[in-house]
Amino acid sequence: MALFVLSLLILSSFSVIPFTHADSGMIGVNYGRIANNLPPPEKVVELLKSQGINRVKLYDTDSSVLTALANSGIKVVVSLPNENLSAAAADQSYTDAWVQNNVKKYTPATDIEAIAVGNEVFVDPANTTKYLVPAMKNVQSSLAKFSLDGSIKISSPLALSALANSYPPSAGSFKPDLIEPVIKPMLDFLRKTSSHLMVNAYPFFAYAANADKISLDYALFKENAGNVDSGNGLKYENLLDAQIDAVFAAMSAVGFNDVKVVVTETGWPSAGDEYEIGAGSANAAAYNGGLVKRVLTGNGTPLKPKEPLDVYLFALFNENQKTGPTSERNYGLFYPNENKVYDVPFSAKSAPVDDSKENVPVKSPSSHVGQTWCVANGKTSKEKLQEGLDYACGEGGADCRPIQKGATCYDPESLEAHASYAFNSYYQKNARGVGTCDFGGAAYVVSQPPKYGKCEFPTGH
Prior knowledge:
Blueprint: E1 26-30, H1 41-50, E2 55-57, H2 63-68, E3 75-80, H3 85-90, H4 92-102, E4 111-117, H5 132-145, E5 153-155, E6 158-159, E7 163-165, E8 173-174, H6 176-192, E9 197-200, H7 203-209, H8 216-219, E10 227-228, E11 235-236, H9 239-253, E12 261-266, H10 281-296, E13 310-313, E14 373-376, H11 382-393, H12 415-429, E15 443-446
Parallel strand pairs: 1-2, 1-13, 2-3, 3-4, 4-5, 6-9, 9-12, 12-13
Antiparallel strand pairs: 7-8, 10-11, 14-15
C-alpha cells in the first residue's frame, strides 16, 4: 500500500477457479515486491496460474516479471512510479522512450491492459500532484505513437484521503483544493479515453480509526443491520460499498457521473501492532472471503447496482521490507515460501467464513481461552519443516535464540523439535491467532505442553 495509506488470489482450499464469472465482477491480485525473500518471477507466475488467477497489478515494469508473464494468459497492469512523474510531465520524448522500453517491448506476448500513472499521488510527500495529468497525457500520446492506445488504458490510483467527506456516501466530495487543479482534468481525461478511475479503498483503516462507531461485521461483509444513507435512503450492507459510492458521489458532484471505477487495492492485514484494532488472520480471512463472494455475485454498489465491481486484492505476498506499522508487512495471502497465510473459500457458492469468537475487534492474548501450543507435524516432509523453520526464524520474527547451539532448547538436536519451538514462538507472538499455526500443513495446535527434552515452550509473549 503506497505511502502508509498503502498493493489475488483467494483460495478455496486452493481449488482452481477462474477469477471471473459471467455477468459478475472481477478479482485480481497486486503483486508487490518490497521484500528480499520472494520466489523468482517464474515461480510466481506458476503460482498465479495454478490458482486460476488471470489478472495481476504491478508497481513497476520490472523486466524479469514482465518476461515471466509472457504467454501466460494473465492480463497485466503496470505502473509508472511517482518518482518518474516530473520527467514524464515535462518531456514527451521521455514517455516515448519509457513506453517503448517498458511496454511495447513486451507486447503482445505479455498482455498489458493498463498503466497506472503514479500511485496515491495526492499523498506523495514529494508533492508530485501537479505533474500527474500532464504525465498521463504524455503517456497516452506515446501509446498512440506506437499504436497501443486502443488496447492499453491509463489511469492513476486514488487514495480515499482525496475525499473531504465520505459519510454518508451520498455526501461524498473531493477536497476543494484538488478539484480544479487535478480532479476535474483527470476525470475529463478518463472520460475521453473511456478509462476507469482507479481507487484504493481500505475498510480496515476506517474501522481501526472508528471501532467505537463502525460495526466489525459491517466492515467484514458479515450479517449486520446495515446502514441507511440519510441523504438518499439507500441501504448499505458493507463498508466497502459505502466507500466506493462516496467516490461515485464525489465524481457526480463535479459533473462526472459516467466515469467507471475499479478498486485497485483493498485488503485486510493478518497481523498488526497492538493499537491496530481489528488486525488479525481471522478478520483478514473473513474480509477477503466476504469480498470475493460479494464481487462474484455480480451486483454493483447501491448507487450503481448495474455496474459489476472489479477489485484487485492487496496483496499476493507478505512483504518484509515494507516500512511503517506491522500491518504493512502482513497483507499477503501467501508467505514468501508460497504457503497460504490463511484459508478463504473462493466461490460464490462457498459457505461463509466461520463466525467464530476468534473474529474479534482487538487482537490480544487474553481473547483466547485456555493454553495452547503450536508444534511441528512429524509426518510432513523435512523440506516443508525446514521451510517453515526458516520462515518462522526469519521474516516471521520468532525468538529462535533458545534453539541455537549451546542454548537451552538446542537438545534434542532434531528438525522436528527445533521447528516445533520456532513454530510455537511465532504462534504465541501472534497471539495464537487463527492461521498462525499452519505453515502449509507442517504444524498444528495442541492443548498439552510439548515435551522435547528439558525444553519449556512459552505460552505467551
